[in-house]
Each structure stands twice: as C-alpha cells, then as structure tokens.
C-alpha cells in the first residue's frame, strides 16, 4: 500500500470516529435579579424604642412617622445572592463548610456588598426605623408576632456558635410580622443603612450621622464607661446598626427594639440582610 493510500485510510478512519452531528455548548443564560417579593408597610406613625426592658440605647421610647415603603418578605438567601455573584456584580459571600443549602440566609457580607446586591435587585438597604416598623407594626409589640416569648416554631435561635447555622429563609410563618415579613426575629442579624449613634433616640427628629455618633462615643469615654450596652466596647469609628438577632442568640435578645452595631466592612457569619424600596404604587393596598 502506498503512502498516499495509507494517509487516505487514516483520514477516513478519523472521520468515521467523529460524531455525525456537532453539539455546540450552549452559553449559560445571564444571571438576572430574582423577582422582588416585598411586603407593603403603610405610611404613618409607630412606636419606636423600649422604655420597659430595653437597653439604654433603646430609650426613650418615642413616636416616629415614616412614608410608605416595601421590604423583602424574607432575608436574602444564598441562592439569590449567588445570582448577583454570577452576574459579576457582587463579591462572593464566605460560608462555613457544610453551609451549602441555597435556601439558607446569606451571611458574611459587608454593608457595601449588601448595598450592591440591593441596588442590583432594584432596592436599597432599609433604615433602622423602617426595619423596626416592619418588624413590630404600630401596636408597640415586643416581637414580630406579639408579646409572647420566642419559640422554635416562630424563630431560629439558641444554637451553638461552632455548630449552628442559619435555616432556609421563610420557613417559620408563625413568626411573621404584622405586614407578613418573615424571620425578623432570629436566623441572622440584618444590616441597616443607619449609622449607630447610642444617643440617637434622645433626638429622634435628627438622623444619626458619623459626626453625631463620634461625639456620643467621646462623651461615653469621658464618662469612663467601657460600653453603653452589652459586652461590646465603645467604638472609636462609625459603625452600622444591625437588627433582629441571629441563630446563635438568646430569646430575649430577639426583641424588635434591640440594637447592635458592627464595623460596616465586617463580614460576620451571623449577619445578613434584606432589601427595601419606595415603589409602593405597585403594591396591593
């Protein structure tokens, strides 16, 4: 057999081995934001703060009046947050090994990352006042469902820090707020857009700023105090308010008026978020 014949035979053999039809790889569809699922919180006054059994930074109790807004029915899940990561808009969120359920509340995102997600999803972070009204309504209740103590049917709490984790969002309907928002007690602490000022309730008509917060911190240091509330020391720079308690928290700490504060750049395994918006004209009355 000549060299030409051998080469022709090899070519035929190669062609026979190829599939009859090519199957081009389909490009992955672009990641788009999930459809918003937000509940309406009507305009009007509500009671903010807690004179009865709250910490000093929850006092004095006072009346706030807000415009109408919408807030996410549930905390943002890992699955929904990953869509933003896939779209190239969000930074990946850290998770402990085994925290793989996409329905679980996303954690370990900073204020900036939460803000980026909310913008991508057509919203923004709620303010501290908006969060509290959405959680407790207008009747001054202690928890989203009322004044009764938390139960594991209503909220996710009391787990050990080294083995617990957030549960799938929206799986405790008996813990709903008056407007239908879920998981506003327990599961994860939720970032707000509000700067933490321990004296904020003493001047409720003025929004907290970094300047007012730092002035309050200087005053507390002048008084020789280690902390104003809880075990956290007095900050030396601006921090943001988180609300709602988390999967590792104790029952009384889940009250809707409880305020905690952390560095806005921090990525904590107990903190997540939900979004809000002002497009109330699309909501049912």
Describe the overall structure.
- This protein has 285 residues and is an alpha+beta fold.
- It has one domain: paralog of FGE (formylglycine-generating enzyme).
- Helices cover 20% and strands 13% of the residues.
- It is built from 5 helices and 9 strands.
- The protein has helices at residues 3-17, 78-86, 111-120, 128-136, 210-222, and strands at residues 38-41, 44-48, 62-66, 69-72, 189-195, 240-243, 260-262, 271-272, 276-277.
- A 4-stranded mixed sheet has the order 7-6-5-8.
- It is globular, with a radius of gyration of 25 Å.
List keywords for this structure.
alpha+beta, 5 helices, 285 residues, 4-stranded mixed beta sheet, paralog of FGE (formylglycine-generating enzyme), 3-stranded antiparallel beta sheet, globular, 20% helix
Low-confidence stretches: 5-23
Please write the CATH class name: Alpha Beta
The SSE string, one letter per element, is HEEEEHHHEHEEEE
Strand order of the largest sheet: 7-6-5-8
| Corresponding CATH superfamily | paralog of FGE (formylglycine-generating enzyme)
**Major beta sheet, specifics?**
4 strands, mixed
Total number of β-strand segments? 9
Estimate percent helicity. 10-25%
Mean pLDDT across all amino acids: 90
CATH domain topology: paralog of FGE (formylglycine-generating enzyme)
Shape descriptor: globular
- CA-based gyration radius: 25 Å
**Tally of contiguous helical segments:** 5
Strand content: 5-15%
Tell me the number of structural domains.
1
**From the coordinates shown, what is the CATH architecture?**
Alpha-Beta Complex
SS-based class: alpha+beta
Q: Quote the distance from N terminus to C terminus.
A: 87 Å
């Amino acid at each position: 057999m000549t060299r030409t014949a051998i080469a022709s035979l090899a070519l035929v053999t190669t062609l026979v081995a190829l599939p009859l039809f090519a199957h081009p790889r389909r490009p992955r569809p672009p990641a788009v934001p999930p459809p918003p699922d937000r509940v309406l919180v009507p305009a009007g006054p509500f009671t903010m703060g807690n004179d009865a059994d709250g910490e000093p930074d929850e006092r004095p109790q006072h009346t706030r009046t807000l415009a109408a807004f919408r807030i996410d029915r549930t905390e943002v899940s890992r699955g929904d947050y990953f869509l933003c990561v896939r779209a190239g808009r969000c930074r990946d969120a850290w998770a402990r090994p085994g925290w793989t359920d996409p329905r679980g509340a996303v954690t370990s995102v900073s204020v900036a990352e939460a803000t980026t997600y909310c913008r991508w999803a057509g919203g923004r972070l709620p303010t501290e006042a908006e969060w509290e009204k959405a959680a407790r309504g207008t009747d001054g209740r202690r928890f989203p469902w009322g004044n009764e103590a938390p139960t594991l049917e209503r909220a996710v709490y009391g787990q050990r820090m080294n083995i617990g984790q957030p549960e799938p969002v929206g799986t405790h309907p008996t813990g709903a707020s008056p407007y239908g928002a879920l998981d506003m007690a327990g599961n994860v602490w939720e970032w707000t857009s509000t700067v933490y000022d321990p004296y904020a309730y003493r001047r409720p008509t003025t929004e907290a700023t970094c300047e007012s917060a730092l002035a309050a911190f200087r005053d507390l240091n002048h008084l020789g105090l280690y902390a104003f509330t809880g075990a956290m020391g007095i900050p030396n720079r601006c921090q943001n308010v988180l609300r709602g308690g988390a999967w590792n928290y104790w029952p009384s700490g889940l009250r809707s008026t409880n305020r905690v504060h952390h560095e806005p750049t921090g990525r904590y395994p107990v903190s997540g978020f939900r979004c809000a918006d002002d497009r109330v004209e699309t909501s049912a009355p």
